């Protein structure tokens, strides 16, 4: 099993930059294309304001990671990134050297800003490479080609201490042989972390309509399961085993920020459409911000934040979320923490059925993990355990 640095859940700060140069046809993230330049100074001010409001809610805390996600944060000017990172440090304690990730697209224009991001305090970049062949990059609607991706990877390795990149697999017509070659090429570029997602067809996206109209087909479940198994085999053989369903890292190179989500830690979410989950007045509170960027900025300017939804979770909702997140991890869940959330242990009868079916396995006496077979049907496993 992957050796992780520590198991403390942490306190992360997530910043959402909601703009993209173009909308990818598979994407259902909160991302928007603007044909006029975005007023970055206005958004930087709004981030500062909302961060201060969040600080008033969380009280003084020590931050364990910062993540600038999107959208396309590599469309932010380095000065905008610097303003946001300074604002985080003004509001909470930010120890030297904590993980500060920025998601970037590998187009040449964006790569030019890498040195500015590093100077602003970013020490880890997550590149949206998605494919290492031009035909599939065009199919995925990406604006970069393989040459630009390789250039951005090289530059990122030079500038940032840590590098991750994303690939999407189970693409139309992708054979196991082709995926193996592409994945091995990716590993050869020496990222210490890879996020490997299967192409899924999300409702409301252009791909959903095209897929329904039979304009293309994605691999069926059996083929996709074979590609998933192959992915586990190849990454493990090259020293980047899965530490989460879709995330692979050399030991010690796991994403601290994402571990906070999966270990059911706390995080503040700032920006349009951002979600947060933190303990306030002794209860885990969910915040959900307005998704439309300009409406969000208007709200922040009027009342100090753009939060328009959320709830206080009940103990049993917390326990369910803890299971759902934690069983995604190779390290599994701490059974004592589950008991603390839910007020009871997991049903031994259900556990033993799931164990007999090979879907979960104990790690010593104190932890439980999903097996590789269990990971594939994780929602059903969690639903069964949470009953
Ligand atoms: S760049 Fe990323 S966030 Fe933007 S549209 Fe494409 S997949 Fe979505």
UniProtKB/TrEMBL annotation:
Keywords: 4Fe-4S, Chaperone, Cytoplasm, Heme, Iron, Iron-sulfur, Metal-binding, S-adenosyl-L-methionine. The gene is yggW. Gene3D superfamilies: Aldolase class I. The keyword Heme applies. It is found in: Cytoplasm. GO terms for molecular function: 4 iron, 4 sulfur cluster binding; coproporphyrinogen oxidase activity; metal ion binding. Its cofactor is [4Fe-4S] cluster. It comes from the Bacteria. Residues 5-241 form the Radical SAM core domain. GO terms for biological process: porphyrin-containing compound biosynthetic process. One of its GO terms (cellular component) is cytoplasm. InterPro entries: Aldolase_TIM, Coproporphyrinogen-III_oxidase, Elp3/MiaA/NifB-like_rSAM, HemN_C, HemW-like, rSAM, rSAM_sf. NCBIfam families: hemN_rel. Probably acts as a heme chaperone, transferring heme to an unknown acceptor. Binds one molecule of heme per monomer, possibly covalently. Binds 1 [4Fe-4S] cluster. The cluster is coordinated with 3 cysteines and an exchangeable S-adenosyl-L-methionine. It comes from Mesorhizobium metallidurans STM 2683. SMART domains: Elp3 (SM00729). This is Heme chaperone HemW.
